[in-house]
Amino acid sequence: MYDLWHNYHWLLPPFAAGLMVVLTHVVFGQEVLRRGIIFIDLTIAQMAALGVIVAVLLGFEGSWLMQLFAVAAALVAASGLAWTETRYPQRQEAIIGSVYVVAASVVLLLLAQDPHASEHISRLLSGQILWLGWADLWPVALLYSAVLGLWFLGGQRGFYLLFSLVVTSSVQMIGLYLVFATLVLPSLASRRLRSAWGIGVVGYVLGFALSVNLDLPAGPAVVVALAVAGLGYNAFLFSRTRRQS
Description:
CATH class: Mainly Alpha
Number of strands: 0
Helix content: over 70%
Shape: globular
CATH architecture: Orthogonal Bundle
Oligomer: single chain
Radius of gyration: 18 Å
Number of helices: 11
CATH topology: ABC transporter involved in vitamin B12 uptake, BtuC
Structural class: mainly alpha
Number of domains: 1
């Protein structure tokens, strides 16, 4: 038992981060699918990433100003998309996709002459979830708690605002791939909130196990594991339905 604790105790903060993300993002993922705006998370996350890159290039990396840039960029995008949803609902998905690809292109242009460009892009896409410590989690935990409290108290009207705050924090903590996967894959596998939460937890456990034991990058490993967990859950439901019939 001591050896197990000694070898794997460092995984507790990353796993706690994964639980926090699953608990929060699955709730918003259900709403994203209900509204039919699947790529909203990628767009908001990409805008937040653009804010981070601008802050880094201005010399604010690691400071509260970097967070301010990220939140400001995400809120601008969220406000604009909330407005277009009321004015052009039939074109909303196209607008969301357009904002994403433009923001991603601006990031590439800004980093075109940066010698650390590949490192910045990799961190924004894949994240560094296995290197998180307890000190990294408590500010995000407070934010997630406040957002979930507002949401369950009837904050659905502020969807874009609350969503942008959550995604802005998450993309810096776990990367864009995991943000999208955690929002969409569990909710795509089940529209029942508890089942989707369970799928998310299983996906993170399996993904961490694959990453640690096979020396694979954690972000992509968890993304694949979430997909496997979702498929496994639906295969189980299908087989049970066939047995009952």
